Amino acid sequence: MSEEIIKDVIVGEHEDYIINMGPQHPSTHxxxxxxxxxxxxxxxxxxxxxxxxxxxxxxMCEANTYQQIIHLTDRMDYLSAHMNNEAVCMxxxxxxxxxxxxxxxxxxxxxxxxxxxxxxxxxxxxxxxDLGALTSFFYGLRDREHILDIFEESFGSRLLHSFVCPGGLxxxxxxxxxxxxxxxxxxxxxxxxxxxxxxxxxxxxxNRAIGIGHMSRExxxxxxxxxxxxxxxxxxxxxRKIAPYGAYDKVQFNEILEPGCDVxxxxxxxxxxxxxxxxxxxxxxxxxxxxxxxxxxxxxxKLPAGEYFRRVETARGELAVYVVSDGNKSPYRMKFxxxxxxxxxxMNEIASGYKIADLIAISxxxxxxxxxxxx
Amino acid sequence: MLNKEELSExxxxxxxxxxxxxxxxxxxxxxxxxxxxxxxxxxxxxxxxAFDYLITQTAVDFTTKFTVVCHLDSVKFRxxxxxxxELTDRDNPAIDSLSGLYPTAEFFEREIFDLFGxxxxxxxxxxxxxxxxxxxxxxxxxxxxxxxxxxx
Amino acid sequence: xxxxxxxxNESLELLKTSGNNFFLTSxxxxxxWGRSNSVWPLTFATSCCGIEMMAAGASRHDFARFGIExxxxxxxxxxxxxxxxxxxxxxxxxxxxxxxxxPDPKYVIAMGxxxxxxxxxxxxxxxxxxGVDHVIPVDVYIPGCPPRPEALLYGVxxxxxxxxxxxxxxxxxxxxxxx
Lengths: 375, 152, 179
Prior knowledge:
heterotrimer; A: alpha+beta; Cytochrome-c3 Hydrogenase, chain B; 3-stranded antiparallel beta sheet; 16 helices; globular; B: alpha/beta; Beta Polymerase, domain 2; 4-stranded mixed beta sheet; 3 helices; 24% strand; elongated
């Protein structure tokens, strides 16, 4: 049994010391195995091994209809589940040339931003916990419960909702949705400065984060690192600005870029993104147009033969969906380009030369969700 | 930012055998597998094109042939291109690797090897990524596994 | 909770009538009280159910009040393994090894539809193990995708009730645990 686990160890030089940060480790990022080669306490190189949660979602998509695929995409990056669902819905709507009502676009965008805040809150909890500041775990999850209450009232489920369907939404949102969202925005604006007091200005945290894990802009573009991790290296990659979808062309928001290129820059990008998301929600929440919550679609959806491509911005980067269709009700080939796949493999470049305790800070700042890598 | 006609002009000068399918959402170009790597090098180094961001690289199994598909984007100009190449050999399909140009291609190509069995020449680490060594190539259309898959 | 409040639980009722008396002797009752109120879990979360497990440990649905307070990172110090998430073929030797490294008495909770039976990945997937009970013996199954944190708390209470039914002085009841 031990042979199966260590069969692809890379044998290093005589004084190399290889340890395994195995598939089960308490950083709660998922099942990732990192084979780390150390010299003293310094990391010489590291090799990530993935595949411990490879469920074969792309093969399953070839046997399911498009409405069923939406439920599978939820489970890939479960912290930005709504954006994943929206990518599949939009690609179907583009291919069938269906125009969704305005009300649907506004509600989908508001839910995108609420999901982004919830995902960044969980990132903040887990990041503080990894570095040893256990208080951040309780603060972040306390505030995240407010968003999950809003979701539960409208959709019935806290984490994996699958609320969107091709053509619009499954049903209309609860009448209390607008009121509760406005209350949440007001509440959270008083709480975000507390987060800054806890971690951002803390001298211990700054010593652990500034100057660690340097990733240059060329490295970010070459490895395809998108999302807040890429924007922390001044790589402008926000799909909401490049190819706007939903109601993003009707709001004013800034793309946050930081030139720092280290762990602290990536941290600051995510904190600033939470403020931007609150401002987007404020601009949209009072102006939701009345109307239908879905466009008319046939019950059996068959995409016309051809190839389609769509990109969205999830909380971790750029998700691209590529569909090859031959006219049936299941796709012939469906490929998901997930942001965490590209974000993980830059780790060897940026963690070599630092200490092993810095490795935890670096992997926390990249904000990985492992089922997204393996699909 | 160049539009589809200008891009296809420039590409036709580099590779006269390139084929441009009509009526597609993005500009697609199909090249023979021998010129796949040299065209990719020109696309990256030409200052008017500057395709420096590889969005994704994948493969599709049409039962008589494999097609390797790359989606390329330019950070400076924001134009997109789909580069395709077809492989007809089903027993030992092989094509050149782009990992010298784009570091992220190393891992996309390992995934394609794992799921389809297509080998890439000059790849620094041609090993499987997700599955175990004796598993077979699941995303091929002729893959059958009675033990593990419960079909519906 | 009183025994009568678990009235709709068939298998534990069977356990009761088959002669496994609760609180038989004072040694049994003391040991079972200690063990059931202090089960320490191992940090093992593969996918989405792990987030609901973390939420169950946070301040709203606090499970420290049930005794599952400290998460142990090492299996040598843990009592229960809460398998939250999908198990695939590559992960099976790792899970078996972790289970073997835990000292007795140890318990397993299968949380979420994927750990119970394969869940949404039951059909058409080539690498998912359909249910973690193909690998290790399970004590409590918690259905849901993902189960609410309250469902996890109910599952833990069921486990506590099951532990109270064990008998130190009559270890014949424990033979199926020694696999």
